[in-house]
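Record pair follows.
FIRST:
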Amino acid sequence: MELFRVKDNNKYGFVDKDGNEVVPCKYNKANDFCEGMARVRHHGYYGFIDKTGSEVIPCQYGIARNFSDGLAYTRNNGQKFYIDKAGCNVVEANYSFCFSFNEGLAKVCSFRTKEKGFIDKTGQMVIKCNYDRVEKFSNGMARVELNRKWGFIDNTGAEVIPCKYDWAEDFSEGLSLVQLGGSYGYIDNKGNLVVPFKYETADDFSEGLAPVKSNGKWGYIDTTGREVIPCIYDHAEKFKNGLAAVGNGKGSAQQWGYIDKSGSVKIPMKYQMILDSESDFE
């Protein structure tokens, strides 16, 4: 059952697709559902509800994050744990900063020991990192930064793509958007350059296409680098459900609409703004 977050009298609740109230508007804060659970805040403390509205994990935590990989980070009265969906303490998290689990690993770091790396679901530090920055795992790889250059490690901690890029994004549909010398291109998970460094800026692939900017205009390429929709727009968003929002003009003169993957206009470019259905309106 899909539920939608609503706000009434500065309180949050959830309704179904027909507008029926499933969870009354009684929470000070609420997040969208993630892995079947929604984080809510009541009287200053966080807990979790399921899609029936039952408070399956009581609002008792000073800090709590959304569930990811079946676990959620919590902190209360100095005690830090990753909990499961029954509310049981599963992994002790004695680090200064703890992040959500992704692909079985969670990024952690300690101010006291200067230790930085990834723990597994037993709480063991399985990857120690000597990088300036590390990011979460996605598609079996994690972005790392060393001396202001970015590369990738695998889930053993091996540096599989050297830190040589000015910027790198997580892999999406087999390719990573990377920047070098002021231009953008795409590499595969072996580090091979698939799309040359020739774009002013670009975005991740979605549904087989990626927005790219050339000579001040946006268009779309496929995963081979072929330009399938010409760079003729002032603005372009990623494809979702077969359509992408595109726009022309600047400031209050912007006009937005939607195109399909052939470049045909499906919704006329006459709107001042396009809002994603998942946008957070707060």
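SECOND:
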Amino acid sequence: MLEPDLVILDIKMPGMNGIDVAKVISDEGLAAVILLRLSVNKI
């Protein structure tokens, strides 16, 4: 099992959003720093 020090997540991801992934990481007791970001595509 991986135990990263830093996890970079996009808020909008297919399947499960970044906030839900962050909650799972926290619930698993992993001591990783979580960085959430939001990408915006402007056309």
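COMMENT: The chain has one domain: 6-37.
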